[in-house]
């Protein structure tokens, strides 16, 4: 049984000009200990799909699905209070921009300890000791001192490590990482990805990695799902997808990699899309 199973997920938003369908009939699943990469360009519905699963979309969104189960439990019919307990404990998410996710008015220590006290009912000292352990586990130097820092006092890479520490604080079974290396330089990107993969292996978490970077997919994923304009184009294990892509859109993504350049210019998606649409 998959750890997470989604069938026929559709998400629409109310707009001034009428409903806008951001996700159109997506099927997805991830097993315990597996890394699933969801890849596609900006606007393809990758993040919206996972935010819908987390129940974090605004009231302007309409979400429907035939199946949305976590560990056999129906997320669609689960009482709101029970779902809130599940989200943040068994399923956690790392968002694109750590500076937008962390509260600038509170210290790093307060924000990590709040997660621990809310879900585990830890006392003040126990929560602080656990927060120090977590910062140490994600490679933050002088973790006890860093608990006193505010987000603006840390670098982008350090803030992303803090977000990872908060995400793994309760030993989740599924971690969703939404473009976790956005706005970080190349060296820090590799450090963050290496850290995520190390933690995923240590804790045997299911990991869903949302990205538009096919190089990251090749290095990290067991299985890949390709999305385009809210639809799933194809899904395969990572080796099969890179060696024998079925969709013209996937072929376009792979051909746009710098190492696959054959002329003076990189190809664009439009070079591969037939007149009738994506195939």
UniProtKB/TrEMBL annotation:
The keyword Amino-acid biosynthesis does not apply. InterPro entries: AAA+_ATPase, ABC_Ni/Peptide_Import, ABC_transporter-like_ATP-bd, P-loop_NTPase. It is a peripheral membrane protein. One of its GO terms (cellular component) is plasma membrane. Its main location: membrane. It is found in: Cell inner membrane. Keywords: ATP-binding, Cell membrane, Membrane, Nucleotide-binding, Transport. One of its GO terms (molecular function) is ATP hydrolysis activity. Gene3D superfamilies: P-loop containing nucleotide triphosphate hydrolases. One of its GO terms (biological process) is transmembrane transport. Residues 4-254 form the ABC transporter domain. Belongs to the ABC transporter superfamily. This is Dipeptide transport system ATP-binding protein. It comes from Paracoccus sulfuroxidans. The lineage of its organism: Bacteria, Pseudomonadati, Pseudomonadota, Alphaproteobacteria, Rhodobacterales.
